[in-house]
Amino acid sequence: MPVLAGLTATGEIAFGEQTGDWEKSRETGASVNYASGPAYAAFTVYDLDDANGVGAARRNFLLGGTYDLGVVKLHALVQKSTGT
What does pTM read for this prediction? Predict the structure, then answer.
């Protein structure tokens, strides 16, 4: 995976499980990560479409990171989930 100034990005898609309708229960996701020296940060979004193919059944957002002070490593994470 290419790294540009400490940044990497990924994406994924899983087509739905309904024959002839790839939007029903489709899953998509993406992330952007930064790593340089003692610092690491990441933002991720994950989306699951409902079984009818109309809008999101669940959507998750995550933002987190770490910072290594040598003796101690600090960790932080914030998450927001919507849907059922």
Answer: 0.79
